[in-house]
Design brief:
Elements: H1 7-11, H2 16-35, E1 40-43, E2 48-53, E3 65-69, E4 75-90, E5 102-115, E6 121-128, H3 131-141, E7 147-153, E8 160-164, E9 172-175, H4 182-196, E10 200-205, H5 222-232, E11 235-239, E12 246-247, H6 257-263, H7 272-284, H8 290-293, H9 295-299, H10 304-316, H11 332-337, E13 343-347, H12 354-370, E14 378-382, H13 385-388, H14 396-411, E15 417-423, H15 431-435, E16 439-442, H16 448-457, H17 463-467, E17 476-481, E18 488-492
Parallel strand pairs: 9-15, 9-16, 10-13, 10-14, 11-12, 11-13, 14-15
Antiparallel strand pairs: 1-2, 1-6, 2-5, 3-4, 3-6, 4-5, 7-8, 7-18, 16-17, 17-18
Helix pairs in contact: 7-10, 12-14
Length: 512
Amino acid sequence: MSAGGLGSATEQGTPAGSLADAVDDYRRIRSELERGVLPLATSVDGRQFTFQASLHQLQLQTGGYVVLEDEGGDSRLGQILTMRPDSALAPDLGIEGLNSSMLMRFARGEGVILDGDLRPFHDTLARPAEPSEVDSWLAQVRPNRSALSIGELLLAPGVAAALDSGGFNRHTFMCGQSGSGKTYSLGLVLERLLVGTSLRMIILDPNSDYVRLSEVREGADPAVAAEYAAAARGVSVWQNDPGAAHPLQLQFVDVDPAAQAALLGLDPIRDREEYAALSGILATGEKGSAVISGPDALLSSENPDTRRLGLRAANLGVLNWAVWSQGRGRSLVDELHEPTSRCLVVDLGSLDTINEQRLISETVLSTLWRNRQRRQPCLIVIDEAHNVCPGQPTDTVTALATNYAALIAAEGRKFGLYLLTSTQRPQKVHDEVLSQCDNLLLMRMNSEADLGHLSEAFSFVPDGLIQRATTFRQGESLVAGKFVPHPAYVRFGQRLSQEGGADIPTSWAAVR
């Protein structure tokens, strides 16, 4: 209502009772007019539409589904992409005693046609779609490939949300802040890939969250549990543990040459003598050579450059890391070259130092890149990707890992190398890795800066859908890209496998 609407009545000397009656009439009429706003949609191209609706008992919402029905009985299924309150000035209603021009409030927005004949339309009635109508459309457009059920559509309760398994031949980006359910949900996606596909997977697991991926949760449906247990037999966990079935270990000679030099802080120009000594040892040595056995053999060498190399290694403590196999047993690189399991969980969280984690990550990525000509399809899962492939690496080994991640992101698809990167901090992930992703799994993010960054990187996702991520509850997500027929809000379902990690108890917060 305009600010001058009541002032003029006082100036005209309208009695207080009459003024109150006039205000009541004004409010009643405005409410009736606003309630009478019809939910109408218009499209000039048959692909996108604009709409209006009453704000009273509003049933439409961003991301929700609508059926657009014209007078001839034709209907189209649409999805609302943006919605906002709006207003318009109504004409003078002639209410005595009031300058009664009135500001009518209503909802306005835009959407996209999911199923229609591409004909333009005008003033077509819009109503919320029934879940069965959404489910029927999804059944029509679902490709003839394995559908990976991950839960249900948030805005069409009861309708299964499924990912097209074939869509994982594109890179995928998953993000969500702490407490959003990201780790749990990623585990569910990995489970579905295990059961529904034969795709090989390698998981870089920095927090030991997926080390129990092969263990079925108690209380699971017996038939479903049996199917999952059969698929999970292809999971092997490599970890730094005395009793591990697969010790997480390397041979130094299997490490990427650039990473070898980086570990020892060697520059090929500044430290040319030591660098040459290392190159000579690696060129002539076997997997049980002195450089693996320990620094003592280097320190006792007659070659002064080799002794300096040994002193450098001793000072840095690099060769005393638990990750070195000392020539015993099968190394991680052997497993990458000749896989004995379909799903390899690399338990980075079991390692003693961050530098060992960095080395293992770099070695996995560099080895896969070197073997790319084999063209063996493989999903590379990088959890906490802001640590493995950051935009601004703080050390040489991480810089090398980032370079290989960027190479795989840019060129890996043609060799069958597909990334699935997960993070809490999307702005910290290298731009090349982020920009090459065609699939998005977005969970709750409160940072407007992060959401703006994602809007730019995933320009194919309507901005209005991304912005709603601030309102997600735990386990809710926006799913968009090549593995779904349309961007949709999803509520993730229940996992079958055990979770590896656990939150720290908050008993310290109990009332005292």
